[in-house]
Amino acid sequence: MSATTTTTALPGPAKNPVVSRALGRRRHRLNRLIEALCVIATIIGILLLASILLTLIWRGAGGLSIAVFTQTTRPPGSNGGLLNAIVGTLIQTGIGTLIGTPIGLMVGTYLAEYGRNSPMANAVRFVSDVLLSAPSILIGLFIYQICVEPFGGFSGIAGCLALAVIVIPIVVRTTEDMLRLIAPSLREAAVALGAPKWKVIVLVCYRAAKDGIVTGILLAVARIAGETAPLLFTSLGNLNWSISLARPMASLPVTIYQYAGSAFDDWVQLAWVGALLITVGVLATNILARVALRGRRTS
Amino acid sequence: MQQAIAASPAVQPRHRRYDVGDAIFALLARSSGAFVLVLLGSLILSLFVGGLPAFRHFGLGFVFSTDWDPVKQIFGAAVSVYGTLITSVLALMLAVPLAFGIAFYLTELAPEWLRRPVGTSIELLAAVPSIIYGMWGFFVIVPIMSQYIQPFVIDRLDGIPVLQDLFAGPPFGTGILTASIILAVMVIPFIAATMRDVFDTVPAVFKESAYGLGCTTWEVMRSIVLPYTRASVVGGIMLGLGRALGETMAVTFVIGNTDRISSSLFGPGNTIASIVALEFPESPAGSLKLSSLLALGFILFVISFIVLAISRILLKPRLKVG
After folding, report:
1. pTM of the complete model
2. How many contacts (CB atoms, under 8 Å) link A and B?
3. Complex ipTM tops 0.95
């Protein structure tokens, strides 16, 4: 659609100066109205974020104490903490990232360096994008089907696998984007020195794209740390202390889910503390990722 | 450029000793690519196979049946499919105008120094975990809905033929409309960020020529930017729809959970994702109920797959889907 064809739709110059001035006023009034509405929309957006953060601080900060970090979850009324949930989230997020990152990195490498625009690469890219936006609850059901039911029980490792599936497409996307940004002259210089392709990729391209790849991993960590739905069917949650990957494992989001819906005031309070912790963690990781990328994406 | 390097005959023979490393690395990359295909394939297959007993038992009627009776072991998908679609569509109706306003502000109106902080705040809204939206919705939005908005609307619309039914029922605060509002808040950042990136792809010359003709900002947006980016804007909206369809935790908190279709938007309902999350703990392995839940998951996957595929096709010429 070219500019010349569309501008003909605009009101043309009126012959009568009075009419044309009135028309101009009307156009500018409409413009001001819409600009004001846009400013209001943006303010609403920012107020929503502020409302969520303030609610979390207001409800959660009061419940913060040493016990939250040193005690495990306990029956209502006995001053429990969230230790097992925090540790469970750290373990599952960590292992999920460790499993998903290498796969995602290799897939991104394949797309940027090997497949490029071949039919196979396009298929992989499409599927990876579908996985990126696929409902996470379905990933939970999938891991339940292949990993929980056949092996006879919920387990921490199943939770890790579900999270790893979510990590892969995020890392794929950023890795491919970043590898494609690298100047061809850099690769040519390495090839001219006699380096084989894999050394060019590992020693030159990965290094040049490091910031971007790290950003992708951080974004993936931020995303899976707060995931609840896939863990409901895989690691299930555990109110007792357990760091065994073969048994059900607690996690902050699932504990929040269980506690927030309960009828006990101290559990609801702990749910808010957990919500505050997870949100601060996720947003801090996110901001860190953006800072890491800032030097790169100057456009 | 890459092909030129790979095909360069002068490089290959002299470094034959490295071919092993190259072959291994290439194999690793290619098999990782294939692995992603297998992953999605097995995801679809596992949901389908898991749902097969339900599909077999109820036939095609499963999709259109509104029954959900665990006692009689009769299950149907219609109520949750209806809930999924209505909440997502309502959410889009609320989110699209707001997201458009934000994108318009960020690309054309905001002063340069404000663009980054405001843009980042909107993007951070997308990073907040969905369970937090659920709690926020349940403890903040639900009371507002039940104390102010719902009684006011029910009172005002009383006696108006169609509207009074659409907004009828006791003001519990939870329900389809509340779920849609939470979903709208959750998808606004996705749609706004995509729209902003798409608007930024319009060549400055086009806009400048329109401004030169004396167009106002809104006229430039309506007559230059929107026609130029129409397909991608729809693609961004579809991306938001894809997110809304599969959202689980936030909806589960506020939708009210019932197994029948309510004619009122204030009435309770459920979505595929919320019924799966809630009923799963009471569904023993191998039961018909679990199979029905997996069949629901399969239906949800098919719906989201179609929406995401359309979104990608529309966005592809302009942007990478992010």
Report:
1. 0.90
2. 299
3. no
